[in-house]
Amino acid sequence: MAIDIGSLMERSTAMLSSDHKSVVSMNIFVALLCACIVIGHLLEENRWMNESITALVIGLCTGVVILRASKGKSSHLMVFSEDLFFIYLLPPIIFNAGFQVKKKQFFRNFMTIMLFGAIGTLISFVIISLAIGAIFAATDSVHLAGVVNDATSVVLFNAIHSFDLYHINTNTALQLLGNFLYLFISSTLLGVLAGLLSAFIIKKLYMGRHSTDREVALMILMAYLSYMAAELFYLSGILTVFFCGIVMSHYTWHNVTESSRVTTKHAFATLSFVAEIFIFLYVGMDALDIEKWKVVSDSPGKSIGVSAILLGLVLVGRAAFVFPLSFISNLTKKSHSEKIDFKQQVTIWWAGLMRGAVSMALAYNQFTTSGYTKVHGNALMITSTITVVLFSTVVFGLMTKPLVRILLPSPKNLSRMLSSEPCTPKSFTVPLLGNGHDSEANQKSQDVPPRPTSLRMLLSTPSHTVHHYWRRFDNAFMRPVWWPGFCSRSSRLPH
């Protein structure tokens, strides 16, 4: 058999050229990530913007440079990859959110978080409509509720994907609700089981006495396995890995050595930090991919109009659950300082900027094939999604800080509103979760209230919270099994 040397050389040259392009792309991305961290740090010191918004702006600028260099042609460097986002970038961000969460505050304010994270998303979803609601319902009105919010959006998206929404009836609505509850509950249970399994393995094998590296590696791999297992069984990987992070931080973390605790805490935080910057940089660069804009270039006015309508629906949908649910939440608060006043509600409404990457990933899943589309209607939805995401992230993000200063000028309020990440807009709404400093002993020492005679009095009557019941169950059944050296008499140990 004769060998065509010329053809073989051409293929080899093409492969080398392709590999070189990949190397160039990675060099550009790594250099831009470093620039985002440095510039974001300098800007954050001046209380202007953080690394995420900086990455988005730098991504847009880089997209402009690439377009000029390629003379208006599309570049693979700027094409949004749904697989890259969902499989590699999103898991460390969501897991770290669960791993670093303050469990006492999470369970003490569980109902409030569910109100804003799950019920609020459903309300926004209904208002924006079933067709595109799951895409644009992913707003972040509460820092902790934001993860639940994103998870709810993805679960909703998966739940409605197999339904014919053009011929919806009562039976279809019930099936949709059942599918949603199945996905939500199953995903949560899978995450809990994965976290408990990792705690059991590390506790029984006690790997730390032999190798800290094995402990850390097992925790990382078990967390990632929980996410991929959820995707394998068509569940919500976001919800699974979030609760896996909570369970791991509460049980697995207490079974590893001290060096492993320090390593995992910083390793998960670092992975999450880099992934989040990468996502915003990627979104910014993809926003200027020329192909999708060419498809709708014949009707720019229509594209702008659709974007404006969608942005308006997002704002209305957010307001429709922020203010009513804040009122309901206030009914359950006895202390006036724990209630959400109107100015704080306005801040929550405004600062609930969209989780741009989740919205874009869901839009690409629905309206493109491998990141591309030639269908005018699909391209219109993609470009409109990009416009809404960019506008809401940049404008709402940059104006949140001045808005807080105007509406909440008191230094006391500002100190309560600012968390460990003072310039991240989604961290401004901490007061919503209550101060959380009153101990249960102080609550028990209060006088017994009169018998409630109205709904407000009933909701305001002090009662055992989710955290109270969870703590009793945890101390009686879970910690004796999953914590080393724990017995039921040690129930007064700090959380």
TrEMBL record:
Record field: catalytic activity: Na(+)(in) + H(+)(out) = Na(+)(out) + H(+)(in); K(+)(in) + H(+)(out) = K(+)(out) + H(+)(in)
Disordered: region residues: 434-453
Domain Cation/H+ exchanger transmembrane: 30-135, 144-405
Membrane topology field: Multi-pass membrane protein
Record Pfam families: Na_H_Exchanger
Origin: domain of life: Eukaryota
Subcellular location: Membrane
GO cellular component: plasma membrane
GO molecular function: potassium:proton antiporter activity; sodium:proton antiporter activity
Coiled-coil segments on the chain, per record: none
Keywords of the record: Ion transport, Membrane, Potassium, Potassium transport, Sodium, Sodium transport, Transmembrane, Transmembrane helix, Transport
Transmembrane segments: 23-43, 52-69, 84-101, 113-138, 180-202, 236-254, 266-284, 304-327, 348-367, 379-399
One GO BP annotation of this record: sodium ion import across plasma membrane
Keyword Membrane included in the entry's annotation: yes
Name of the featured protein: Cation/H+ exchanger transmembrane domain-containing protein
